[in-house]
Each structure stands twice: as C-alpha cells, then as structure tokens.
Amino acid sequence: MDNSGILEKSARNVWNLCSTRGIKLAAAESCTGGFLADSLVSIPGASSFFLGSAVCYCDEAKNGILGVPKEILDKFYAESSETCAAMLDGALRIFPNADAAIATTGFLDSSTGSKPKSLGGSVFIGTALRLSLADSSLKDFANLPVCHIKNSDFLCGAKTGVSVMPRHSEESGGFFKICAEIKLNVSAPRAFNMRAAAATALELFAFALGGL
C-alpha cells in the first residue's frame, strides 16, 4: 500500500498557498512522527514558508516542550481534540513568527493500551490561522453539519480518502483554531496511516484558508 503521492500532492498544495499568501507555517506532530514536516521540506525552497515542526510523541514531551497542560492530558488523554488544540498553542509559542500552525495526535492502530479501545485508529488534526488570514465563519466549524459546509467534499474524503469529522473551533490569542477527528484503517501499515494523517492535516489547513 502506497499513498506517498497523495501526501506529496497535499504538501505542494500547502506550499503554493503559503508562497502565494506569504504565510509562515509551523507544526507540532505526535502520531505523524515528522512525516508532515518531511513532506514539506522535501520541496525545494520550503524554508521560505516552513519554520519547523516539534515532534512530541510522549505525554512528557507534549507537556514539557509544547506546554500542553497536564490537566488536559489526564482528563481528555493525549489523543483528543483538546490536546490537539493545546498543541497548536505550543507550536505558535515555539515559533512566534508563525502565521499558522498544524498539529496531529492520535492512535494509528488498535493498540490503545489502558485507554478506551474506541480510540483505536482515531487521529486528531488541527489548524490555527491568524485572524487576518481566517474567515470568521471558522467559528462555526464544530457546530455545522458537514453537508452545510462549503467544500464539504474534502470532509467526506474526496482528497485523501479519509473522512473528516469536525470536533473543535475557537478564537483565542489572535488566532482561529479548528480541530477534527479522522478514523484510520487499523489494519493498514503504520507508515500508510502516518502519511494519510499527515496529508489530511495539510488539507485541513488548506480547507481552513477557504473558510466555511
């Protein structure tokens, strides 16, 4: 199974958007383990828009490096929209010149340890955009039925083969933040799911720039 072409296409789409609009982008990755950053820096000239990615896999890194509050990790788990939103804040703090951020966290397979089995294959992806870049309609992202959202074909899996379920939206600190949940095939190879999650996170960023 090879979906590397989908990830490459999504990365180039983000490169075009950032280059055209002068956007500086940062990321915080957990389950994608740097695949998202790798897809971007593989493009010549990526340094013109991509600032970097903090890969924080364990809870200690999420708390110590990204500043995700321990209370969130304890109450909602590291694999949640709440943690994803906090990871966006962490990326923006680490890269203060960023105009936007992307975050990923979740389970790539059915191995959830002591956490609920229902989280198997659940990955949470998020995007933060400066208010000057974001349409105010983003505040409704988590409250609208998918069928009422413009460009809902992306949410239904048309671009990456993964359906996207809105979970969180808020305005804070001069940014709009949106987070969503995707369900991956737990039988697929981990590398396949890492690429799928990274590609869908990149496409969520592109989607957010277009508003609802």
In short:
This protein is α/β, with parallel strands linked by helices and 212 residues long. The protein has helices at residues 4-21, 35-41, 59-64, 70-76, 81-94, 152-155, 190-209, and strands spanning 25-29, 50-55, 100-106, 122-130, 164-172, 175-183. Helix content is 36%, strand content 21%.
Layout of strands and helices, then pairs:
Elements: H1 4-21, E1 25-29, H2 35-41, E2 50-55, H3 59-64, H4 70-76, H5 81-94, E3 100-106, E4 122-130, H6 152-155, E5 164-172, E6 175-183, H7 190-209
Parallel strand pairs: 1-2, 1-3
Antiparallel strand pairs: 3-4, 4-6, 5-6
CATH homology group: CinA-like
Briefly, what CATH class?
Alpha Beta
Report how far the terminal alpha carbons are from each other.
33 Å
Low-confidence stretches: none
Q: Level of helix content? A: 25-40%
Major sheet attributes: 6 strands, mixed
Query: What best-fitting shape do the alpha-carbon axes yield?
Result: globular
